[in-house]
Specification:
Blueprint lengths: L2 H5 L8 H22 L11 H23 L19 H32 L4 H52 L3 H30 L4 H28 L4 H19 L6 H7 L9
Length: 288
Amino acid sequence: MLAPVLVVQGIDPSLRSRVVGLTFAGAGLGTILISVTLPLPVLSLTTEPTIGWLYTAGLTAICLVIAWPSLRTRGIPSQIRPAKPGPTPHRKRMLVLTASYFFFGPAIAPMYLYLSAYIYLGFDKSITFSAMIFAFYGLGNMIGSPLFDGLISNWIGRYLSLILAMIVGLVGMLLIIMTSSLWLAIAAGLLVGASNTAATALMADRAMRIVGPALRIRWWGIMTLFTCISEVIGSILMGILLFLGWGYSSVFWIGAISFVFAILLASCTKVPKSSDSMAISPTTAGNG
């Protein structure tokens, strides 16, 4: 989650949000690949789960080898080299944005943790079918960021695009809570998957625009730390509710409620015009 902000070092400011979005879209492609290939009989998922773990680790290692040459520190042109970090501008806005991202962690967690299990147990489907259905969540991951951070943000701006991306995730959660349809559950996975990468990319972009290039990595690291903590807390709570027999609806309700708080807080963090003009080139200023 921290990598997308690291890879934009040396990238022209007017292109940074697009690069961040494309990086997150790659996560969706990987999810689709895993979801489609992991249940294949040759991997013996139903009899030897260890093989599946080794297969996933192997794919991760291949990706690391491919990406390694680009992970080296690049020379940054002097005209876009950030100054040394100083005091954080608009600290209150960043704290509210961090709080929004904190709630976003448990908002998306139910879908990537329990979607396949919910379909397997709730609709009495095979392990293979349930695992492959997770590819729809990956498809949402892949299209969410280019759609919201690209196409839609050009129409309505990044501020409203972030709010809309989170609302789409909330709709996905409500679909799975209020219906008992397999296909609507699959659609919910697609919507929450799109919300995941879209909102994350737009959050990273908003943080960069508020604090500027010099502080973007520090603050995105802080935000990532807090959302990871919230995902751990949320996951433990969800596990306890399932153990107590409250059912999967309670898990998805946690996601829906968390989405509401994330949306309300994100709506309070519009980028100041002064920060926006410093973070990006004049040709794109005012699009936040």
